[in-house]
Amino acid sequence: MDDEMLSLKKNKTWELVELPKGRKVIRCKCVYAKKEGVNDASVVRFKARLVAKGYAQKEGINYNEIFCPVVKHSSIQILLALVAQFDLELVQLDVKTAFLHENLSEEINIRQPKCDLDKRRLGYVFIMAKGPICWRSILQSTVALSTTEAEYMAMAEAIKEAIWMLGLIEDLGVNQHKLDVYCDSQSAIYLAKYQVHHARTKHIDVRYHFVREVIVEDDICINKIAMVDNPADMLTKVVGISKFKHDLNLVHVKQV
């Protein structure tokens, strides 16, 4: 299902909006299936699709005449026969998520899928004297409606911890003027540095906007970091062994 959601978002299949007045919303659901291999029946692929419950629509009201061409089995047989008769070479190809590449002429309102409403995992790690001193990996308390919003909320949680540590360091008599916080989302950094108010950000809880005040007071410096060099990835998502070892090296963790 993660691959399906990634393809939908990569192709910009939808845009999150408030439901317009007088519009009917169409529900959707996730369909799961198992696909066995051709040569080896023991090889099973798990597939997932997000489908709209189109039977709730009415022709002439929600959509006009539709047509979806489907190949006939006899057409494939004729093609294979011609290839064999004239000793041709046959090349087969497939298009991943082919239905996502065509634009719709109608405007359709679909309820946001539940699999896209799951709480995201936030994580951060603080480094001091070339070693990790604080790290955390938890589910966010509220559901984020976009990746930018999720990154912005995670940034706020990390900055709260940074402010506490900054106060502790100063109480210990160490003069620490500013802490550097790194984030791999440029849009979240822009949202934190500039007081942008529009339809896509007005719903964000005000308790997260203290980040802007901290930046104005120049206590925290927000910096952009490349995704490949962000060690917090190992706390928020499944990473490969090479990426995991790279993240450990970034926080100076070695095997003894």
Automatic annotation (TrEMBL):
InterPro entries: DNA/RNA_pol_sf, RVT_2. Coiled coil: none annotated. It holds the Pfam family RVT_2. Transmembrane segments: none annotated. Residues 11-141 form the Reverse transcriptase Ty1/copia-type domain. It comes from the Eukaryota. This is Reverse transcriptase Ty1/copia-type domain-containing protein.
